[in-house]
Amino acid sequence: MSTLPSSDPARPYDDLADGAMLAGIAAGDGGAFLRLHERYAGLLYTAIHRILGDPADTEEVLQEVLCSLWRKADQYHPGRGRPVTWLTSTARNRAIDRLRARKRQSRLKDAYAGEVEFIHRGTAPVTGPEAASRRDACRAVRSAVMELTSIQREAIEKVYFEGLTQQEIADSLGEPLGTVKARVRRGLTKLRETLEH
Questions:
Q1: Is CATH 1.10.1740.10 what the domain over 15-95 is classified as, yes or no?
Q2: How far apart are CA 33 and CA 78, in angstroms?
Q3: pTM over 0.70
């Protein structure tokens, strides 16, 4: 199912109908989910795209938001605000998380480049086969990390570069602990397989 913009921005918001859709989704009503998707996919796409500016990233984050809404619609409470506000806040928060992950990825690339430069300019000169081996190892690790999916890379960066526990990562992303553990495990498995080749 396509998640490209499909909602009509001129259509007025109906808090009662939107709240009923969210309640239906929380109860597992696939029809309510399809109605919400039809009504709000375009608005959510726009909110995410304003932050990320990249169509591919926007589409991926929109998919994550919609999957999250399917699982977490029961977290909406009318007393905390309008449904449309809750939906767009969820989308914006996920987009901001992606933007931060991009920045961390950029810093990680810079750190790898710096590590290679450090090896080249280290105080104890290394030459010959050892220098070549170190360069190859740095390239292999850098390449392996870049082959991970963005969510695997983000989870591994949070564990190994930010020092967060898996529970802290789950809390910060609003994801189940099991999901975060699976991402880290799959990411490490892929790194190991890539490096073994």
A1: yes
A2: 18
A3: no
